[in-house]
Amino acid sequence: VLVNNAGIYRTGATTEQSVEEYLQVVRINQLGTFLGMRSCIPGMRAAGGGSIVNIASTAGIEGVPLALAYTASKHAVVGMTKAAALEFGPAKIRVNVVCPGAMLTPLLAESFNVPVQVLGSAPFPNSPLGRMGDPGEIAPTVVFLASDESSYTTGSEFVVDGGITAGVVMSR
């Protein structure tokens, strides 16, 4: 099993972002996913199969304002997952992607310049559940995809976002 979960999140106006800043996000989020998959394939082939779980984001299925590089890199991870599933399926290597919504992590708190505790206590009206997610709420989906319980699942996107991508929340 490989879980590709390294990533960074940077925001800023596209016209003010340097090429190096853009490439830093792409190198970690997109190239890192590629390198992880490439490095584990020989061992998985030798073992007769395996499971790769890439972690993208809801930014991989929709746009995020002021996060062009992040959005592009996460769309790439979703596309790479589908291509890899087609390429490595005959070797019994399953490849899926999890697209979490806004998560209470130091990474996201850093982008808002607040501690995680402050971010977690703030209302989150964009979500039907009214809050951001906890990383522990993503783990069961990853465990399922890593396990034999998902033996007929490959090339799929699993959105775990508290309903954020379902649509616009109307007044409560």
Question: Any overview of this molecule?
Answer:
A four-stranded parallel sheet has the order 1-2-3-4, with helices on both faces. It has 172 residues and is of the alpha/beta class. The protein starts with a strand and ends in a 12-residue tail after the last strand. The chain has helices at residues 19-47, 68-88, 106-112, 116-121, 139-146; strands spanning 2-4, 50-55, 93-100, 157-160. The longest helix is centred in the first third of the chain and has 29 residues, at 19-47. The chain is globular. The chain has five helices and four strands; from the N terminus they run βαβαβαααβ.
Q: How many strands, which pairing sense, and closed or not: the largest β-sheet?
A: 4 strands, parallel
Number of helices: 5
Structure summary, number of beta strands: 4
User: Strand percentage, roughly?
Assistant: 5-15%
Which residue ranges are poorly predicted, with pLDDT under 50 across at least 5 consecutive positions?
none
Helical fraction? 40-55%
Q: What is the ordering of alpha helices and beta strands?
A: EHEHEHHHE
What is the distance, rounded to the nearest whole angstrom, between the alpha carbons of the first and last residues? 42 Å
Overall outline: globular
Using the CA coordinates, give the radius of gyration: 17 Å
Strand order of the largest sheet: 1-2-3-4
Helix and strand composition category:
alpha/beta
State mean pLDDT (0 to 100 scale): 94
